[in-house]
Amino acid sequence: MSKTITLRIEDPIYDIFKKAAEGERRTISNFVENAAIQYLTNEFYTSDEEMDEILSDKQLISSLKKGLKEAAQGKYKVVR
To answer: According to the model, what pLDDT value does residue 62 have?
Structure first.
């Protein structure tokens, strides 16, 4: 089910969205939705290839496990 959100942006930013949406023959709403999905997918998800590379790095995995163990034991310092 679709949800409606309200987004307040300055006129120059609106103009950028409008021109970009027109360039792709989309509505501004559809353009913003697709741009947000693309951003989130690229920034917050890892490709299978990248995950394979991470998991094959034994030194990295060892270091991460050590860090998790130390954090669970309270061996960390909060830097402000």
So the answer is: 97
Q: How far apart are CA 30 and CA 20, in angstroms?
A: 11
Phi first, then psi: give them for residue 56, nearest 5 degrees: -85, -5
Residue 67 falls inside a structural domain: no
Question: Is there a domain that residue 76 lies in?
Answer: no
Distance of alpha carbon 65 from alpha carbon 55, whole angstroms: 12
Q: What is the pLDDT of residue 72?
A: 95
Residue 44 has pLDDT above 90, yes or no: no
| Two tokens, residue 10 | 């300055």
Domain limits at 31?
11-44
Burial 46-74 (b: 16+ CB within 10 A, else e): eeeeeeeeeeeeeeeeeeeeeeeeeeeee
19 within domain boundaries? yes
Q: How far apart are CA 13 and CA 2, in angstroms?
A: 24
